[in-house]
Design goal:
With 285 residues, the chain is an alpha+beta fold. The chain is 16% helix and 33% strand. It has an eleven-stranded antiparallel beta sheet. A hairpin with a 2-residue loop joins strand 4 and strand 5.
């Protein structure tokens, strides 16, 4: 408990850092996501890896995340490869050491801004037919707010253009849409017969290999298309009770902008928590 108090006190005096929208998290990462209780729900034979907000697509250390779209017979899943590989390392370390407490920081996720939680990194998105389910994992000390909700998919209404771009050797066509407060540009490959993409994007006649909002605050770009056998895993439903998108959206915004107040933090010295930070949430409404 003393270590937790010291940690949160240090976090409280860190000032107004992490306010940049491309590093969209102020809350600390958490370890207990139910990774050791996951079950395999399908098997993918192809997956597409995406760099999220990369400073250099050739250097994973500059990514906010390395996302992956796994395509199985019954479903598609978009999630973080960084988080997945970190979970495997943690599970292996605990099994070898027989220790259930402190985990070396070297096992925390790779990439840019590794110390901070982001809803785009710590959520899993499952697509079955025309239904998308987000499994939302909240930051440290906020496990009680984990949840999952469903919505219709796809919801984007795209306008196709004649412009083309080559990505990973595939000729991609440009499409645009307005979705939940933002304008997006997508480049999809008709010769990759997957009607999906990163995050919630989908609904185009081919796989989306690059997509970004017109402010370039959020940008995904495919860096690999892999074929093989990949298990599609799901967290236990008991740790992610059913809820609504509106509730999850509000919680994700609150934990990003006002983490310490949101978890009910108080300083032993009576010092107020840092002021709310501003941040450009991907879904503005």
């Amino acid at each position: 408990m003393k270590r937790i108090i010291i940690f949160l006190t240090i976090l409280a005096v860190c000032g107004e850092v992490w306010a940049q929208p491309k590093i969209n998290g102020r809350a600390p990462v958490r370890e207990k996501r139910g990774y050791d209780k996951r079950i395999v729900v399908d098997t993918a034979n192809v997956r597409i890896l995406y760099a999220l907000n990369a400073k250099d697509v050739k250097d994973e250390n500059t990514y906010l995340d390395l996302g992956k779209l796994e395509v199985g017979r019954r479903m598609q899943k978009y999630s973080s490869e960084f988080v997945y590989t970190s979970d495997l390392e943690v599970a292996k370390w605990k099994k070898e050491k027989g220790h259930q407490g402190y985990v070396p920081k070297t096992f925390f996720i790779r990439g840019e801004n590794t110390d901070n939680w982001s809803e785009l990194v710590y959520s899993d998105y499952f697509i079955k037919g025309n239904t998308l389910t987000e499994w939302a994992c909240m930051p440290l000390y906020a496990e009680k707010d984990n949840g999952r909700y469903t919505e219709q998919w796809p919801l984007m209404k795209w306008t196709l253009t004649s412009e083309t771009l080559t990505i990973l050797g595939h000729r991609c066509q440009k499409a645009t849409c307005h979705f939940r407060g933002r304008d997006f540009v997508a480049w999809f490959a008709a010769d990759v017969p997957i009607k999906g993409g990163p995050w919630k994007f989908g609904g185009l006649p081919g796989c989306i290999l690059k997509v970004y909002d017109t402010q370039h605050l959020y940008e995904w770009e495919a860096v690999a298309i892999e074929r093989g056998t990949f298990p599609i895993c799901q967290y236990p439903e008991s740790l992610y009770p059913k809820t609504t998108r509106k509730r999850i959206w509000k919680l994700q915004k609150e934990y990003t902008e006002n983490y310490l107040n949101a978890i009910g933090w108080t300083s032993l010295e009576g010092r107020p928590a840092p002021k709310r930070v501003s941040f450009e949430q991907l879904e503005k409404e």
